[in-house]
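Re: folding output
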Amino acid sequence: MLRFSRSFHSTRILGRGQNITEKIVQSYSVNVPDGKKVVSGDYVTIQPAHCMSHDNSWPVALKFMGLGATKIKNPRQIVNTLDHDVQNKTEKNLTKYKNIENFAKNHGVDFYPAGRGIGHQIMIEEGYAFPLNLTVASDSHSNTYGGIGSLGTPVVRTDAASIWATGQTWWQIPPVAKVNLKGELPQGVTGKDIIVALCGIFNKDEVLNHAIEFTGSSLDKIPVDYRLTIANMTTEWGALSGLFPVDNTLIKWYKDRLVKVRPNHPRINPITIQALEAKAKVLKPDTDAKYAKTLTIDLSTLTHYVSGPNSVKVSNTVAELSSQDIKINKAYLVSCTNSRLSDLESAAGVVCPTGNINEVHKIAPGVEFYVAAASSEVQNDAKLSGAWEKLMKAGCQILPPGCGPCIGLGTGLLEPGEVGISATNRNFKGRMGSKDALAYLASPAVVAASAIAGKIASPNEVLGTMDKTAVEQVPTLMAEVDEFVKQDETISNTEEGSADRVDILEGFPTEITGELVLCDADNINTDGIYPGKYTYQDNVPKETMAKVCMENYDPEFQTKVKAGDIIVSGYNFGTGSSREQAATAILSKGINLVVAGSFGNIFSRNSINNALLTLEIPNLINLLRETYKNEPVKELTKRTGWFLKWDVANTTVTVTEGSLDGYIVLEQRVGELGKNLQEIISKGGLEGWIKSKL
């Protein structure tokens, strides 16, 4: 997926500065030519500080062994945790858990058993994810690490197996968006309110597949726990990472942790904190760093927000929903999003506002309130602070530290017709139980208040600080997109020849050409590309995969498309599940390149991992749509008579009409397909590349 436009190439040649995301990636990239600055759009080979996998560690191990690997390249790089299905005591699950534990022991890998906590929380508590390092995990909420200034981003299982075997995998540096949090939060408004508001206001994919860097004059007043919640849910916002700066607030947080953490801890100790302070003074965004866009929200205009039902892109104030008298059946204070100590204490402050354990508000009749700490350490701290006892006294049902109902596992799932309110990160239809239930997301305080009131309610209603029938006066929300830097600009005459020439590996094609076939739709999902009914059928032959390719999108695709064509489609192509067959089915059809306005990130990773090339060119899909907008009958799949030539060496794409030598309708710079990516593609994908390294 090549987002890198001509304007970015030119600024790099002129020595433009780097943002903090690019600087961190630079320090964890390998085989970068001396003197070259990596920037947005570049494909790089990364060697992350750490890679975490959880219950999926055994599938990763099977893939690792299937590659012929016998030894973990760097055992200190790998972390295995058990957290997702910890309530499942079946023989099958316990056997899987034992397999993971034995594998970790045999390979000298750090292992954390079920009950220790959620993997992401462990990565932070134990200092694997650490400020200014690059830490990945085979889980979509790796973004959480950005709350402590660690560049966290998810990888897929094949990537994890690659890191286990070689210490490395690939990454494309995404466009970087700056999110400016200006103003100060009103009393009682939290990090969850910030991210729920952001997801609801900027809900047009403004940050899709971007890295985010948070800035703002009052950032030092945002607690670290709030930052972790915000970074965690940048995943739901559509971003690949959400990075907060390393500032005095964070440094103090780490110094305070030294009271609990042993002075000789290998990752969090006085020496590492001192080194961090020195590094943070140097590793800052350059004054001329480039950002794709800047979004601004005024925190002083926020109040308590609730997302849903069944969508993170819909948010309303709790006052608006309270006035609708929405009864609830279940409430949840669980997950990697909002079950840290401050979250538990916030909820405890609602159920027991006086602090007197004998004056606790009880959970409303007919409501079940489930609580699970993010880790055993958090649970112990909550017991010491008294928050745990208050929640239990109120009637909360305690679950073990882990994921559970957030992902539809274990006790307390939503039943058909029920309404739930949760401090988790996702309220997708059916995720937390029945698809016929309604799920809302909110802060711990709002969740606790709703559990007591028996309906979606503000903490103020329960605490008696406002009339229960009144509607809170909410200030006008101030949010805006300040700036866009276009990601796709055509080539001007004055720019000709100004970009770097890419070295091409021997045998790799210098040009890729084909006729464009338009699949004119946005959000074509992986089920549309490769039907789900075939996904779990093993050993489906390529011929069959080719025949069913895109059949759920358009049955006529088969008769209109031939080998050697190039698919061009709309925005967020390949969204949905992570099935790699979405990429391999297209390859089976004889198509080696897909062009789109944008791609779902998981599809992009699976494409490269299986040697399917992708180009992201919004200008092209917009131009085609303008050309065909007045056609009386829209074809889902249309042969355009336009031809594309990708000059890989010179990083240019030319689109012509009628033939490859026809009238030029578009010329544009695209990103570099560097030697590292060429090598993976030439080996038939990441698995072939890993085998060659072994």
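--- second protein (sequence, then structure) ---
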Amino acid sequence: MTEEVQQRVLWQPSQEMQERSNLKKFMTWLREEKGLSFENYNELWKWSVDEKEDFWVAIWDYFEIKGERKDDIVLSGEAMPDMTWFPNATLNYAEHIFRKEDPDKEAIIYQSETRSESALTWKELRQNTASIAAYLKSIGIKPGDRVVSYSSNIHETITAFLACASIGAVWSSCAPEFGVKSVIDRFKQIEPKVMFAVDGYQYNGKQYDRLENIRQIQEELPTLEQTIIIPYLREDVQEAVPESHSTIIWNQILKESREATLTFEQLPFNHPLWILYSSGTTGKPKGIVHGHGGILLEHLKFHGLQNDLNESDRFFWYTTTGWMMWNIVVSGLLTGTTIVLYDGNPGYPNYETLWKFAESSKMTVFGASASLLMASSKEGVKPKETYDLSNLRAIGSTGSPLPDAGFDWVYEEVKEDVWLYSTSGGTDICSGFLGGSPLLPVYAGEIQARALGVAVKSFNDAGDEIIDDIGELVITEPMPSMPIYFWNDENGERYRNSYFDHYPGIWRHGDFLQITSRGTGIIFGRSDATINRGGIRMGTSEIYSALDRVPEIADSLILDIPISSEQSMMPLFLVLKDGGQITDELKTRIKQTIRQNCSPRHIPNEIIEVDDLPKTLNGKKIEVPIKKILMGVPLEDAINIGSLLNPESIDYFLEFKESLGVRSH
């Protein structure tokens, strides 16, 4: 990325926006209540990490957490990961969801390929949650019991989660497009007692029945005592489900428990709220456990301050229930905002679908993965010419770095005065390390700021902090939403090996990061997938960003494969748009694009067309496992096939390895 691009300002918050932002109100509160004054965001960020205990107590007080701290112990322990936040406090995450409810206001607006746009009010959400919670308690579910979901991004799934959280049950979710083995790999290790599941779903116009999958999952989970079927694909699901004492239909519970009252179990701050999972590309997915209190504080800060959400917002993020962004969407309710759900293929029948939904639902915040925004761009979608987006004030992007071309498309084709904030974080903390700020400008290709309370830095190989250069993304101070532990990791060895094996006591995330002297951030892809040519290291995202300029390319994967101690080969694998083919002219254009936007050293040795690129169940392309395969690592050691959305795509790379004459070792 050139200096010229880095310094190009695309948007500035108006003085009015800054003054009415939650972040400005928080700064005013700090001055009036705590005697703390900060001139700008970066000063506030520095205080939030230097005085981390004071900062998180301020978040507790500012957002008026309903719970008991009981003593003055905010953080115990000597060094990460052996540190505990608010060890003696009690509260309940779900109780805070309903604090700002307005009975007749929409809590959830939803639409899918099978459901037309509709809404669930706060009154309905509370009653449905109470009914499900009462049923769970009636069958003996207690705090700490695991409840799993094999359900779609629909309001029933959110209701089920809130019911679990209200009684202290531990939630875990897989999207229904996950195959049986992938679900078992995740759920079997946590020994659930109850499963919520949709009978099926529709995607890209095609219907997928899931009743047989459910039956197979039930057989593989010996601890499962009850399955609750949510009718989604068919109205008459009762007739399709074999009679069983261990299976009940969702509607039946709502009908029989409609007089229930919602109550909230007061739980330890670090009581498990949900279990998320690592991608599982090189082994069984690790169960990442987050606590009620840590997620509550982090998400109130993330939504309330970084994303500036409030009761007047309609907050949308395109996600499935298998991605941590679903959890982020649910937490939007903490601010009293209306959350907006879409279930289905965002490109069906075309990439206009979500922009049309943005207009009809009056979205104020439109969130999506960077790849989805780039797909809209490449398909030639021009939302501002077709749709009334007058309500849209912000667009969020995450999942992978948004290239500068994506920033340009948003401002040229979506809305000129929209706040575009990019976020980078992870399932590991279920939040962002870097993200938006309503007080700061937007620079092309950059993330606005380091998130408050997140001591994110860039380290060089010697472990020294660097500015305006690319290094390892590290976190040097603990955060409340760091995992409380990994499931079935009694001595914490897997947890330590995942983040703390490189820099003792410091979290190494595995991304390349540049912090600019202005305090913005630029992510350069995974550090373990680095392209190193002639001693010049480059993150793969830089090359992908350059390739986004080539309209024929739908997707790409570039690898740097060592051949000897002095040589390596760098193949570029391309998925072309329908009807495209690799010609000498296209190859020349690709090489020129990489030469001009990256460096001459990073021009690929070969440019190869493939039908598909391997992706995780969350839709992220994988680099390191493919690199390992091409270096001769046996398939079973390089990748867990069950973790892939499209396992058949691996076949090409196995053949390619053979063509290189590489033997497995």
